Amino acid sequence: LAQHYLDRIAASNLNAFLDVEPELSLAQARAADERIAQGTAGVLTGVPIAHKDIFVTRGWRSTASSKMLGNYVSPFDATVVEKFNAAGMVTLGKLNCDEFAMGGSNENSAFGAVKNPWDQQAVPGGSSGGSAAAVAARLAPGATGTDTGGSIRQPAAFCGITGIKPTYGRVSRFGMIAFASSLDQGGPMAQTAEDCALLLNEMTGFDERDSTSLTPEQGNVREDFGRDLAKPLNGLRIGVPKEYFGEGLAADVEAAVRAALEQFVKLGATLVDISLPRTSLSIPTYYIIAPAEASSNLSRFDGVRYGFRAPEYKDLQDMYKKTRAEGFGPEVQRRIMVGTYVLCHGYYDAYYVQAQKIRRMIADDFQAAFRDQCDVIMGPVAPSVAWDLGAKSNDPVANYLADIFTLSTSLAGLPGMSIPVGFGQGEKNANRPVGLQIIGNYFAEAKLLNIAHQYQ
Ligand code: GLN
């Protein structure tokens, strides 16, 4: 099985993988065979998986798709990687993404864009674009992703696969190269909700090495996320936020999403009109908080502790400056500058503190909806299908605006998933997938997977 996928990876031209080490994969595969022969195998033993290059791995390079970490090899495994290794899974390699997970098209990678396997003119989405493309093109049966503001859900939507961002704090961030620590959350990407459930079973759990990991007392206990897959949806109340269907939503995406909602009605659910009034504020709020945290997290890349150092410099200050100017790409530099600015004395209250207040209000809006009106919320993942490679690559604001439907969920720390529900329309979009977003209350992962599975 591992050899089958390694052959497919070698033959593909999507630029989805950044590092493949067949000897290491095959050694894991042989160890899995032995476990199977000895009768000590678990459900995932011998199943191949590939990791977004945000998760550090022993043996494979860990670059975060940045020149800054171009040749970096971690001395330890991320907790998520460690758990999958312990389950006997076979690592196929490391997957391309936007640099430090900053972006929504994978074009911010220092190692080149990934192509969308459905249409090679199109972006795969991002930042987990390599993960989504690899699963869609059957280069891996499953992959890890990280979602800070949509980076599991949006590439899953653009590549027609299934992905879930769990409740913030359920999956350890230890060894996940940090972007915005209060938002970053790992999760699985696969063909189906059933496959995501199997992967999530191994991924979650308290980790004392992550200071924001949810504890068992807080509810972060091991559970079988697939336990409710077969449950009928009779009586399910689906909130449909009007702000997710307004101006700016492409007609073809709306048509596919509305058709999926009708399918849920046939499955026994009812649709409830709801309002999430601060949806549009999620963009300025997120693009203050995420860069602020990023500017702090990325201060560690100083040319001394990790990876790249500029080859020529006068003194220590000059070494820092040149290392960071040469090592970080333009989007990462932009965010460090924005983040440093909003944290400055004198601006901190006007920007950062204000953003934190709105963040709380956004979370409260979701709680009001879940308390009074609905069990889950559904809407589009993104305002359009995947756009053309290059179409927005020089326009950061256009990229930020396309995150409108995924950012609120992240700011609130809620679980959200994307499932494939059809394709765009017209000559250009007919082969570009549409994703439906399903958002649940805290710890509702099993319910989201149940709903997705009933549709699938
Ligand atoms: N597109 C968003 C950004 O650029 C989200 C990225 C993410 O979730 N990692 O920040």
How would you sum up the global shape? globular
Mean pLDDT: 97
Identify every distinct bound molecule in the structure, by name, code or SMILES. glutamine
Question: What's the tally of helices?
Answer: 15
Largest sheet: 8 strands, mixed
Q: What is the H/E string?
A: HEHEHEHEHEEHEHEHHHHEHHEHEH
CATH level 3 topology of the domain at 2-203:
Amidase signature (AS) enzymes
| Helicity range | 25-40%
The structure class reads alpha/beta
Count of DSSP strands: 11
- Rg estimate, integer Å: 21 Å
Strand content: 5-15%
Q: In CATH, what is the homologous superfamily of the domain at 2-203?
A: Amidase signature (AS) domain
CATH C-level label of the domain at 2-203: Alpha Beta
- Spans of at least 5 consecutive residues with low confidence: none
Looking at the overall shape, the CATH architecture of the domain at 2-203 is Alpha-Beta Complex
How far the N terminus sits from the C terminus, by CA atoms, comes to: 25 Å
Strand ordering within the main sheet? 4-6-5-10-11-9-7-8
Structure characterization notes:
The protein has a domain at 2-203: Amidase signature (AS) enzymes (Alpha-Beta Complex), CATH 3.90.1300.10. The longest helix has 24 residues, at 349-372. It has 15 helices and 11 strands. The two termini are 25 Å apart. The protein has helices at 2-11, 22-38, 79-86, 129-136, 153-158, 193-203, 251-266, 282-297, 316-327, 330-342, 349-372, 396-401, 407-412, 426-429, 445-455; strands at residues 17-19, 48-52, 90-95, 142-147, 162-165, 185-190, 237-241, 270-274, 376-380, 416-423, 433-439. Helix 8 packs across helix 11 (349-372). Strand 7 (237-241), helix 7 (251-266) and strand 8 (270-274) form a beta-alpha-beta unit. The protein is globular, with a radius of gyration of 21 Å. The protein has an 8-stranded mixed beta sheet with strand order 4-6-5-10-11-9-7-8. It has a 3-stranded mixed beta sheet with strand order 1-3-2, with helices on both faces. With 456 residues, the protein is of the alpha/beta class. Its EC number is 6.3.5.7.
